[in-house]
Design goal:
By secondary structure, the protein is an alpha/beta fold. It has 9 helices and 9 strands. Strands 1-9-8-7-6-5-2-3-4 form a 9-stranded mixed sheet, sandwiched between helices. Strand 3, helix 3 and strand 4 form a beta-alpha-beta unit.
Length: 182
């Protein structure tokens, strides 16, 4: 039997007590960042120097910096860059800044499943994967609804990986529709 989680199963204060770095500002990145911000979460966005979305990030009211700098600042790093660039991005700019107790998150499990990214044992690794394009994740959040999402825990170093991932999902609006554990 699959577990499905809703708003009553989580606590928004967990994610609100963390600093979240969103790496990438495409379809999912902008929706995650904006929904988290509207839910009261401290969010910064990390992009490369030639990113086409940098101006949009600033217009949306976020602090923009390099992936390396926002990863160093954050407690939680959500990688929303394309799967093909994630391994190099992770190796060069994110992994040097992962401290014990930090959380590395994804919205797609490809690089964890195929071990092109191997996080250290001292961090939590989880996935919240909304089952909708980013513009719909944002639209449904703004209308008071939400999109369903998948939850997966790859590594639970802190003993709180699941609770924190569900709180993140709540901040996205996903627990309004249901988060299914995979």
């Amino acid at each position: 039997m699959t577990n499905t989680y809703y708003d009553g199963d989580t606590n928004l204060d967990l994610i609100r007590s963390k600093k979240v770095a969103i790496i990438g500002y495409g379809s999912q990145g902008h929706a995650h960042a904006l929904n988290l911000k509207d839910s009261g979460v401290d969010v910064r966005v990390g992009l490369g120097p030639n990113s086409k979305t940098a101006q949009r990030v600033r217009e949306d009211g976020f602090i923009l910096d390099t992936p390396s700098n926002v990863a160093a600042w954050a407690d939680i790093v959500m990688i929303l860059a394309p799967d093909t660039v994630q391994p190099k991005l992770y190796q060069d700019e994110i992994s040097p800044h992962l401290d014990a107790g930090d959380t590395l998150m994804f919205s797609h499990g490809f690089n964890i499943r195929y071990e092109t990214i191997s996080p250290p044992a001292h961090v939590d690794v989880s996935m919240i994967a909304p089952k909708s394009p980013g513009h719909r994740v944002r639209e449904t959040y703004q209308s008071g609804e939400g999109t369903p999402a998948l939850l997966a825990i790859h590594q639970d170093s802190s003993g709180q990986a699941k609770d924190l991932a569900l709180s993140y999902g709540m901040a996205l609006g996903c627990t309004r529709a249901g988060v299914l554990e995979t």
